[in-house]
Amino acid sequence: MESEGLIRPTKTGTVLRVNKFRFFTYRKIQYIWYEKECEWVNPADLDSTAPFNTYKNAITDQTGLPEEEVIARRKCYKANTLALPLTPIITILFKEVLSPFYIFQAFSVALWYTDNYAYYASVIVIITVGSAGVACWSTRAQEKRIRTMVGDTIDVEVLRNGKRSIVDGAELVPSDIMILPSHNFVLPCDCLLMNGTVIVNEAMLTGESVPVTKASLREADECGPEIRLSSEHNRHTLFSGTTVLQTRNYKGQPVMVRVLRTGFSTLKGQLVRSILYPRPADQDALKDILIFVGVLGIIAIVGFIYTVIMMIRRAESAKHIIIRSLDIITIVVPPALPAAMSVGIINANNRLRKKKIFCTSPTTINVCGQINVSCFDKTGTLTEDGLDFNCLKAVRKNQEGKPEFTKEFEDLDPAKLAEDQANLNKSGWSIEEAVNSDEETQDFDNVQPTVLRPPPEQAVYHPENHEYSVIKQHPFNSALQRMSVIISTPSEHSAHEMIVFTKGSPEMIASLCVPDTIPKNYTDVVDEYAQRGFRLIAVASKNVHMNFARALKTPRNVMESELEFLGLIVMENRLKPVTLSVINELSVANIRCVMVTGDNLLTAMSVARECGIIRPTKKAYLITHSKTEKDPLGRAKLFIQESVSSFENDIDTDSEVRAFDKKISLQKSKYQMAIAGPTYNVITHEYPELVDRVTTMCDVYARMAPDQKAQLIGALQHIGAKVMMCGDGANDCAALKAAHAGISLSQAEASIAAPFTSNIPDIRCVPEVIKEGRCALVTSYSVSKYMAAYSLNEFLSVMLLYNDGTNISDGQFLYIDLVLITLVALFLGNTAASTKLSAIPPPSRLATSAFYFSVFGQLFLNIATQVPGYVLVRAQKWYIGNPEALDNTTTMIGTAVFFTSCCMYLGYAFIYSRGHPYRRSIFTNYYLCGIIFIIGCINMVMIFTNIPFLMDLMGFVNIPSYPMRIILLAISISGVFISLIYEHFFVERVIAVHFEKYLRDRRLRNGDPSLSPYERMLVEIGATPAWFEQEISISKSINNRKETVESHL
User: Fold this and answer.
1) What CATH number is given to the structural domain containing 524?
2) Rounded to the nearest 5 degrees, what angle is found at the Cα of 285, between the Cα atoms of 281 and 286?
3) Where is the P-type ATPase A domain (predicted)?
4) Distance, CA of 774 to CA of 755 (rounded, Å)
């Protein structure tokens, strides 16, 4: 782009004026070429990582951007809109018909028309056009749904050239100053809060309608130029698509924000892009399909060569040889294979919707059938959303003046507590929100105070005017693990007396308190409650003497230091009723359950024991690190200690679960590990060689930050695990999106944070999704085998008839492909998922030995069925050969071959509809059973009657011997019976279970590199944690040798 007045951002947070720049647009994002760095960069990425002080120092800007700079920035950043123009129908259709499926269909239809199979070809054209039309309609409907979700642009008020004006939200550019209305406003961009306080609903991002308080940049701590804007500053950031619930004005001034990111660079824009451009399909599955089609193609080539040689010997015309030879390819490689394989996914999605589980990415359903690791958030997912108050353990000084814990108080009656602990009381208090006014006092420079008043009966324990004014709040920050409020007790005598109250995790609050105020047994008490599964909130305070202005401007870290410890609030977080049964169900199915939470490690371990993630027959170990001690290599020292396992009577709820816990297998570990986020971070950065093994063995991850959750999901995927993540939405979005399958427990019908959303807020949806995933996966395999068997059966029929210079008639082709195959394949995937999860997972790939044993075994059984009938009819005295011209399709041998093969097609529906262990019985699929019964009756009518209409339509020639008709039917039924035994007993049991297990166990013992690292490591280190102890011993050994050498010097 070349023009006057162009700009582009720099890494320092400023803009550089240029005359031209090179750019390209990829997936809605514009990238600009930076010559010095030799890289293409999205300008919004530079703004998102600019020095934080660049934005903090600009909060006094009351002018805004000049109009010429707005124009220049718009050329660089483009319009602030999630523009999703509807793709023209002709374009959608063109893209659809260019797929290999439609190209092959076009080739087949052209060939059939050339071969005078006009009726059949016309029906296929109608079906193909209808299929393309449905695909186009689905694409257009998806585009409309996304556009509805995105919404239209809105008018906003901005400050430009020192003047306020109303503009379309699409005209916003980064660094614009936007003025927020007081409430109910959907943000059109990502922005930084310059002044005031804003309460927003971030349900669009998190899936939870929980109000979040945003603090202005004025409240940000001072920092150096090296600190850059990052996710740690999210408490100052308002995100596009979130709803402003309330703003607070100060001294009559509006609440202003500075635009940070616009368009598809916003957080909402990134979520929309993730829907528009989903993760690529599983390459292994695609590779398997290509291999499968390639194998069929090889068979087709063999038939092609046979046909050419045979017809050349007969001295047939070149045109006839080409048509007949190419026709073999259209028979062996079924054009409808991709469409038929999607039937199981469509039915599984419909069944999930009935269970109030909604899927925005149906292709993910098949992936769910391969899940072997399921990760869970704790609070709101495994346990109830709310916390129930259990007791209070306050602190008071003993006779020696040292702090000690009081007994447990199960209520908050101040009369039962020491007077100096009365401020912990919350029961019965009233709150009075401030009213905006242009006459606010200068004292309340940053926020109008919220007034708290105790109940009248407790007035004696509180200041003379019986009220507290909340001067300032430091919102909860997951990275800081705490929140604070500064309150004033206004009176004539204490205008400058204030109290800072801080609550947070016990570890964090203890680090902020004066050591002399913490009881000696603090750690023991905290650990005792945590091991019992209680949630602890530590509370501390300090008195400060300063005026309002100074209190508001003092950095947070100063106000939250040298605190006096007040006590512990003990909260109880109960398990949801279904949690234990679901965890047991998944465990018995050999699906590893992992807890990923932000809670204390001991609390997490307690809940993990209670819900069955920590199994009673396995030893449990905690991995910790030292903050002060280093090993000889300068790394933080690691420690491992044995913890308490769960109790068998509490977890093993029935005999099946008890048998599972006592069962020993090659891929089953004998111990479990637990680790906290800080320790996991140490291992990631200082012990990278241990990351894969720790990720394989750790089942409890505590104190995990949101980005660490996503990091863990990535680590599990790196070692080859198929990972499902289930969370309540809050702080889980990154992990939900990173997993192979994410389930959000949200009340919304659909969520863009995860491909699955359950309207029932507990984890019962997890086994349901996995069951349907396994059912859909196995159905796709079954349909593939069904389509392959049908094609090879038809291929064999054609090869036999080519030997006589004839072929299947147009009516027979139509009946086989449209009635026998299409209708049956349509309902083949309608069999519901099994009610129980099997301990043996389905094959993760199509190309297995069992699959090829099945396909090629059925081919040989087809030969053994059709050839005897073919030979037997030709040997009869009443047999009439092909007396007419070349390529006559109305022949007696053609009729006989059809009678023999038609029952085989129906038999395949039973053969490939086996229920156990991933699907229910075929007899529960009433539609399929009905279709098979009706078609079976039609077959009997065609075999045993000579109705003129049917004879003409199907191209039959009367077979004069009814006993021969019975013999042909008996041969066909015998073939079906033998095929059924071969498939269900030999292939499904001998090959798929025993032979595949033998091969897999041998590969595991030999450490076959083709297996995933996850499976290999389970075998290598699953017996004992000696590998971890050895790592610690090596560090100790190096340290001892170092000390020995130093002692001799």
Assistant:
1) 3.40.1110.10
2) 70
3) 155-275
4) 17
SS3 359: strand
Render pLDDT for 6-52 as a digit per residue (tens, 0 to 9). Answer: 888 888 888 888 888 888 999 889 999 988 888 999 999 888 888 88
CA distance 237 to 1034: 46
Between CA 766 and CA 952 the distance in angstroms is 55
**Do residues 568 and 580 share a domain?**
no
Q: Is residue 142, in this structure, part of any structural domain at all? A: yes
Is the pLDDT reported for residue 422 higher than 60? no
Give me the mean pLDDT over the 84-107 stretch: 81
Number of domain units in the chain: 5
Residue owning tokens 């934005």: 55
Instruction: Reply yes or no on whether the pLDDT at 859 is more than 90.
Output: no
CA 256/CA 238 separation, integer angstroms = 11
What is the rounded distance in angstroms from the CA atom of residue 492 to the CA atom of residue 485? 22
Residues 607 and 470 in one domain: no
Q: Let me know if 193 is exposed, middle or buried by CB neighbors in 10 A (0-12, 13-18, 19+).
A: buried
743-748, long-range: CB < 8 A, 24+ apart: 743/357, 743/769, 744/207, 745/207, 745/380, 745/381, 746/203, 746/207, 746/208, 748/203, 748/207
Comparing 26-35, 335-344, 548-557, the range with the smallest average pLDDT is: 335-344
Same domain for 63 and 206: yes
∠58-63-68 over CA atoms, to 5°? Answer: 105
Residue 208 confidence (pLDDT) above 80: no
d(CA 746, CA 690): 36
pTM: 0.76
Identify whether 247 is part of a domain. Answer: yes
Inter-residue contact 123 to 817 (CB < 8 Å): no
User: Mapping DSSP to helix (H, G, I), strand (E, B) and coil, where does residue 437 land?
Assistant: coil
Q: Which residue has the higher pLDDT, 282 or 85?
A: 85
Q: Which of 797, 821, 843, 849 is nearest to 935 (CA)?
A: 821
Pair 702, 587 in one domain: yes
Q: What is the CA radius of gyration of the chain?
A: 36
Is 979 a residue whose pLDDT tops 90? yes
Q: Are 880 and 739 in contact (CB under 8 A)?
A: no
Range of the domain at 1026: 1013-1048
Do 605 and 560 share a structural domain? no
Task: Dump the DSSP string for 723-750.
Answer: EEEEE-STTTHHHHHHSSEEEE--SSS-
Q: How far apart, in whole angstroms, are the C-alpha atoms of residue 861 and residue 901? A: 12
- Active site residues per annotation: 377
Residue 623, CA distances (Å) to 342, 373, 644, 721, 962 in order: 45, 21, 14, 22, 80
- What letter does residue 635 receive in the DSSP assignment? P
Q: Which of 229, 255, 276 is a domain's end point?
A: 276
Widest Cα–Cα separation across the chain: 125
Q: What angle do CA 585, 591, 592 make, to 5 degrees?
A: 110
What is the Cα–Cα distance from 32 to 26, expressed in whole angstroms? 11
Tokens of 928: 């399929």
- CATH code assigned at 22: 2.70.150.10
Which residue among 114, 129, 150 closes a domain? 150
Beta-carbon neighbour count of residue 1039 at 10 Å? Answer: 16
**Per-residue tokens: 520:** 């000696």
Q: Alpha-carbon distance 269 to 240, whole Å?
A: 8
Residue 331 inside a domain? The answer is no
| One domain, residues 266 and 137 | no
- Does pLDDT of 479 surpass 80? no
pLDDT at 249 over 70: no
pLDDT of residue 428: 64
Cβ(536)–Cβ(528) below 8 Å:
no
Does residue 157 share a domain with residue 117?
no
Query: 758 and 681 in one domain?
Result: yes
User: Is residue 775 included in any domain, yes or no?
Assistant: no
